[in-house]
Amino acid sequence: MNIRSVGIIGAGTVGQGIVQTAAAHGLDVVYKELNPEAVEHSRRAIEQALDREIERWAITASEKKACLSRIRGTHTYDPITQCDIVIEALQDAWEKKSVVFKDLDLFMPDDRVLVTNTSTLSVSELGRLTKRSDRVIGMHFLSPVPKRPLVEIVRGFNTSDETFGVARDFAEALGKTAITVFEYPGYVTTRLILPLINEAMHVVMEGVSSPEDVDQAMKLGYDFPIGPLEMADRMGLDEVLRWLDHLRQEIHEAKFRPCPLLRRLVHAGHCGVKTGKGIFSYTAEGERIRETGGVKS
Amino acid sequence: MKVLVLNCGSSSVKFQLIETSLEAIEKNADRLLARGGVEKIGAAAAIVTFEVPGRDIHRETPEILEHREAIACVVRLLTDSEIGVVKDKGEIEAVGHRVVHGGEKFATSTIITDEVAAKIKECIELAPLHNPANIRGYIISHQFFSDVPHCAVFDTAFHQTMPEHAYLYAIPRVLHRSLGVRRYGFHGTSHRYVARQVERIAGRPLAEIRVITAHLGNGCSITAIAGGKSVDTSMGFTPLEGLIMGTRSGDIDAAAVLHVIGKQELRLSEANAMLNKHSGLLGISGRSNDMRELTKAALEENDRAAALAIEMFSYRLRKYIGAYAAAMGGVDHLAFTGGIGENSALVREKACQGLEFMGLKFDPERNADAGAGGERVISTDDSPGMIHVIPTNEELVIARDTVRCIEGVI
Questions:
Q1: CA B75/CA B84 separation, integer angstroms
Q2: Looking at residue B40, what is its pLDDT?
Q3: Which of B88, B233, B280, B296 could crosslink B185 through cysteines, CB 3.0-4.6 Å?
Q4: Could you report the per-residue pLDDT of B102-113, keeping only the tens digit for each?
Q5: What is the CATH number of domain B2-154?
Q6: Within this chain, do residues A168 and A234 fall inside the same structural domain, yes or no?
């Protein structure tokens, strides 16, 4: 299938990343947010992200202009229904995604594939809410989407081979390398990275080492591009907590029990880069502030 | 023989239909029947142009999503009963393809067989942005023109005559053997064409004269031609090396790049874009990669950054002219071509300043003659060596090579 246009429901951090990536690869993109203010907010955020790309030499001013010309925001479903494929990229919460999937099934033409970007939820269950469970599939994009070359394609129980082919072609059109995952909570990436992050928090909480040293150890010792604690800050500590809770509930294994330090930080509103404070502190642009030191356990 | 010349890029197809033969080549009597292109393939509205000499340019903006549709569009226009130039596609007797990279496998143009196509594919690693579109152009056009010969003309082939001491980098030699890291050079078709024009103008065999050709367009390169062969050229493993270009840096200390990558924590793709898209005239002027705009800004607005960009561009060019004269033990002809080379009197003047010591006496008046177009000489009558402006014509070379390949004289 030749995908020329993509609809994206929800333009938060990950949604914006998918919008930017798709437009940068020449696709026409329509993103949907709740209201005109949110549409405008997301557009500004995408423009700022493109400006940062220019500052890092990754794109030119004219490429930014061309990219923005392919992006359109909306707060209704109408323009989304014209798209060749649609991706739901809301926060990973069942109550939100389930409502949207019912809407999409209602509004989208029958032959369109519906994609959910989820790292933990069940594609089969979302499919069950629709009359086209064979055309429902998961694509787990990792954040920051424009910079992560990987996407996990998650087949639900009823997902057809044809739908899988569409998702694989779409991933290729976005310049991503896809791995195939059969539905199981946490898939591959989330299931492997969460215990590491959680254990890093335990190391800090138990006073074994400082957050800086924990991250340094993994960067220098194991070639991690960023340490697990900064990674958690960038994912959003509230999201990390939500995923851990979900996996513990689904898999019933103690290794997914959230570290109390994580819970304490989230309760205090220290959710990482998005709030300016998490394990470490950050500027409004998301740059790590080195001088302030890390969290006290 | 009517030869369709195709130049397929990642989102464009440019074409010319040229009538030529061995006799026409000999008499310089080749005939352009039509030319045009399909740009912005994959966008909502592609831009199609079709031009027949002596007629108004025909334009369309249809939706063209892939190269197959683009080539179908070219065939449709060429055979159109009202604006076309052939009755049916059977009149087209050969297709010549521009292929950017032939690696070390191709030193001349060649008829494309399955084996040749496979070898061109092997060169994709060396030109990942260009060769895939070139080979796709061949595969698709072969479906439209399956009964006629197709010929590949390589940008790199002309420079395959460079001696080892010119094409090797002084890095561990194993990298040449294992990864093919060496200087290949580009714009070979243009340099070869201009050198042949110099030969004609000079009235002496190319093998007996020392020529420096400067192709100054979007990309810029300069070539030293001695004994009729390319003996050195400024572009290297990729088209980044050498002269300063619109948005490319040209020569730079590789360690400076490593320093920036380390300090700014750049990814390889970002460093690549920094050197290829943000540098050159644009990077220095902070204004434009267009020499016309920079010249206007420097002369009319006293824009110092624009003036500096032009100065640096011209200085690098002059340095290379001197180096290549030294490499050949002198120079008999210097020729400028390409958009900047043909149209920027300012760049030519700056680049030729002080070259009298090596026998190139520049004539400022001839150079500045805005009314002059086409081939012209811009050195003084008493200059030992000649300086030329020669419009390039790469498509003609491709058409001629196609005929020569078919006739077995390549």
A1: 9
A2: 85
A3: B233
A4: 999 999 999 999
A5: 3.30.420.40
A6: no
Give the pLDDT confidence of B298-356 residue by residue, as tens digits. 999 999 999 999 999 999 999 999 999 999 999 999 999 999 999 999 999 999 999 99
Residue of chain A nearest B274, judged by CA positions: A57
Does residue B294 contact residue B309 with C-beta atoms inside 8 Å?
Answer: yes
Residues 353-372 of B with CB under 8 A from A: none
B269 inside 8 A of chain A by CB: yes
Tokens at B304, concatenated: 């110092």
> Would residue A297 count as lying in a domain?
no
Residues of A engaging B, defined by a Cβ cutoff of 8 Å: 2, 4, 26, 28, 56-60, 63, 147
Catalytic residue annotation of B: 155
Query: Is the separation of the CB atoms in B19 and B93 below 8 Å?
Result: no
Question: What's the topology of domain B203-389?
Answer: Nucleotidyltransferase; domain 5 (3.30.420)
Total residue length of chain A: 297
Interface probe, candidates B40, B257, B278, chain A, greatest A C-beta count within 10 A: B278
**What range defines the domain where residue A98 resides?**
5-182
CA-CA distance, B87 to B89, in Å (whole number)? 7
Kindly determine whether residue A57 and residue B65, on different chains, have CB atoms separated by under 8 Å. Answer: no
Reading phi first (left if > 0) and then psi (alpha if -120 to 50, else beta), residue A259 is in beta
Partner-chain residue, chosen from B66, B266, B277, that has the shortest CB–CB distance to A56: B266
A216 plus A173 within the same structural domain: no
pLDDT of A164 over the 80 cut: yes
The domain ranges of chain B are 2-154, 203-389
By CB atoms closer than 10 A (0-12, 13-18, 19+), residue A66 is middle
Q: How far apart are CA B178 and CA B326, in angstroms?
A: 32
**Chain A residues in contact with B273 (beta carbon < 8 A):** 57-60
Tokens standing for residue B261 = 């990558």
Are A117 and A88 in contact by the 8 Å Cβ rule? The answer is yes
Q: Is residue A88 part of a domain?
A: yes
In this complex, do B266 and A60 lie within 8 Å of one another by their Cβ atoms?
no
Which of A26, A28, A57 has its CB closest to that of B278? A57
Long-range contacts of A199-202 (CB under 8 A, 24+ apart): A199/A259, A200/A227, A200/A228, A200/A229, A200/A232, A201/A229, A201/A232, A201/A259, A201/A261, A201/A262, A201/A279, A202/A259, A202/A261
Judged by DSSP in three states, A7 sits in strand
